[in-house]
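Weekly sync, protein design subgroup
Attendees: M.S., D.O., the rotation student, P.L. (late)

Item 1: inverse folding check
M.S. brought a backbone from last month's batch and wanted to see whether the design step gives back something sensible before we order anything. D.O. pointed out we never logged the input encoding, so this time it goes straight into the notes. Structure tokens as presented (412 positions):
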């Protein structure tokens, strides 16, 4: 079992123990959650391995020869088939390919551009992981808030049911009120059960990413970094998605230079030796130089150039597309940030107003100035407002984090 699989099995075991124990999750910072998720990201080792391989290709391109030398040996005689005069020839050759002018430098530039591309891909992958952790953390936090409110609602329903049940037994309330409060209790039990299941599922999904059931504290970053009025669009030029496309364009352009620098296959140079065994031959041993120069093919070169040029054109188009996507994402993030802040403020006021109203309705019900149904409706509206307020608060804190991610930065 590889280390990542072992870690996942271990973390799931911890999660199971935590769930069975019914413990409240320990919270940590968003950066801690991201670091844990990045350490478990399956593609991270592959990206690093590709970068190392590209650097190795660059080092190879600095060598004197583009490939390994070749040794060739041949043997001829006329004993079995031929004149049978005792003629024997041994021939050996040692040759190596050599760079065309500028080809080695162009090859090294392509490899270095590849390495820079993988560095940018790593940064982009980190941004993707951070966004996934944020989404999972938002769902888990909202699920926890739902569970808290559902528990409050259940405690309220049990308290009112006990009071109404006692009053019904002594004849102070009708059976209709008892049925209404029992329905409220049944609804609260069902809501609490659903909220508990939702929280468990949300935390489990987060644990798959980070290896831990801990929920990051989303408001920690926004408290240290107050919500900005908007998104810094100038930072978009350093967005990892743009950097990846820029590095790919750079690689395509370097590949085009390499194609132009190598219009034919690499030539070979080497030494050739011949040893002949024939009675009375005065030239039985000879040594020479071998040079092989493959001739360029205009048809093949036109195709290679066309492919390399088309790769540059495609990379330029992809870069323009990503620029537009990043710009649009920043606009949308800025709009969402402002909307989240407005919604949070409104939700806080609404929850405060409805909770005060629910308190007044409860006092009125206790003294007989309003019906139980009206009181229950007022309290249900207050619970709904609390739920909306909690959700708006989570969304507002998440919007600050998303604003940071929109500029290509993983929050510290």
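Designed sequence read out in the meeting:
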């Amino acid at each position: 079992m590889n280390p990542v699989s072992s870690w996942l099995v271990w973390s799931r075991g911890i999660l199971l123990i935590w769930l069975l124990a019914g413990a409240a999750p320990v919270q940590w910072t968003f950066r801690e959650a991201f670091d844990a998720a990045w350490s478990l990201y399956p593609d991270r080792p592959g990206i690093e391995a590709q970068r190392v391989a590209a650097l190795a290709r660059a080092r190879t391109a600095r060598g004197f020869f583009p490939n390994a030398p070749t040794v060739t040996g041949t043997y001829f005689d006329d004993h079995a088939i031929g004149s049978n005069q005792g003629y024997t020839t041994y021939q050996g050759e040692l040759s190596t390919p050599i760079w065309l002018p500028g080809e080695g430098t162009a090859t090294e530039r392509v490899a270095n551009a590849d390495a820079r591309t993988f560095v940018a891909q790593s940064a982009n992958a980190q941004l993707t992981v951070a966004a996934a952790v944020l989404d999972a953390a938002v769902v888990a936090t909202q699920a926890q808030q739902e569970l808290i409110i559902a528990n409050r609602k259940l405690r309220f329903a049990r308290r009112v049911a006990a009071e109404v049940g006692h009053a019904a037994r002594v004849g102070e309330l009708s059976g209709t009120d008892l049925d209404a409060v029992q329905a409220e209790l049944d609804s609260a039990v069902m809501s609490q059960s659903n909220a508990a299941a939702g929280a468990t599922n949300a935390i489990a999904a987060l644990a798959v990413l980070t290896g831990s059931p801990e929920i990051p504290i989303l408001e920690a970053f926004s408290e240290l970094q107050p919500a900005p009025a908007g998104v810094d669009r100038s930072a978009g030029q350093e967005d990892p998605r743009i950097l990846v496309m820029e590095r790919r364009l750079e690689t395509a352009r370097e590949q085009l230079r390499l194609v132009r620098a190598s219009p034919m296959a690499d030539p070979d140079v080497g030494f050739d030796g011949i040893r002949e065994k024939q009675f009375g031959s005065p030239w039985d041993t000879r040594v020479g130089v071998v040079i092989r120069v493959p001739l360029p093919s205009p048809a093949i070169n036109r195709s290679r150039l066309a492919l390399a040029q088309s790769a540059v054109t495609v990379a330029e188009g992809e870069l323009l597309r990503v620029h537009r996507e990043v710009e649009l994402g920043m606009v949308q993030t800025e709009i969402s940030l402002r909307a989240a802040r407005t919604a949070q403020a409104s939700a806080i006021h609404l929850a405060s107003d409805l909770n005060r109203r629910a308190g007044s309705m409860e006092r009125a019900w206790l003294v007989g100035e309003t019906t139980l149904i009206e009181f229950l409706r007022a309290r249900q509206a207050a619970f709904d407002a609390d739920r909306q307020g909690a959700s708006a608060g989570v969304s507002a804190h998440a919007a600050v984090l998303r604003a940071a991610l929109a500029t290509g930065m993983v929050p510290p």
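Discussion: The two ends are 33 Å apart (CA to CA). The chain is about 70% helix and 10% strand.
Action: P.L. to compare against the previous round before Friday.
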